[in-house]
């Protein structure tokens, strides 16, 4: 078992306030986030992009494990996770995550690749955490 952490600081109101996020590893240290970066496309981070990065990383690692169990090794895999935040009722909710994977895996046929990618989507810990619709588009490059 492993435990790690991320942290956030905030000062001010929702629209004029400013926040900073940090990770245990130091990959992010007091990186800015706020209303403008979350809802208005301004510079800075937001929770949804962090969830997307975490989901893409988790899914891709899970697929690497599953490929290894099938005696396959990826030459290259790249995953993008589009996280959708929408107004729902009186608040907001993450309503979906779409994983888009491109991979080059010597010796894999498309049917097996799709099967294994689907297992990774269902089995990765971040997928299990998220209570939302998760879709997958997996492209095997030759």
UniProtKB/TrEMBL annotation:
InterPro entries: KH_dom-like_a/b, OsmC/Ohr_fam, OsmC/Ohrsf, OsmC_Ohr_Peroxiredoxin, Peroxiredoxin_OsmC. Coiled coil: none annotated. GO terms for molecular function: peroxidase activity. Pfam families: OsmC. It comes from the Bacteria. One of its GO terms (biological process) is response to oxidative stress. Transmembrane segments: none annotated. NCBIfam families: osmo_induc_OsmC. This is Peroxiredoxin.
């Amino acid at each position: 078992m492993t435990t790690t952490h991320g942290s956030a600081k905030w000062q001010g109101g929702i629209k004029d306030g400013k926040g900073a996020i940090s990770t245990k590893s130091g990959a992010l240290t007091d990186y800015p986030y706020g209303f403008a970066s979350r809802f208005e496309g301004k510079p800075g981070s937001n929770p949804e992009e962090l969830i997307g990065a975490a989901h893409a990383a988790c899914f891709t690692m899970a697929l690497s494990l599953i490929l290894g169990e099938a005696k396959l090794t990826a030459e290259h895999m790249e995953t993008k996770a589009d996280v959708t935040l929408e107004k729902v009722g009186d608040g907001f909710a993450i309503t979906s995550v779409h994983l888009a994977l491109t991979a080059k895996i010597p010796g894999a046929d498309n049917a097996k690749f799709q099967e294994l990618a689907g297992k990774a989507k269902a089995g990765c810990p971040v997928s299990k955490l998220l209570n939302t619709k998760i879709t997958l588009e997996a492209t095997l490059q030759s």
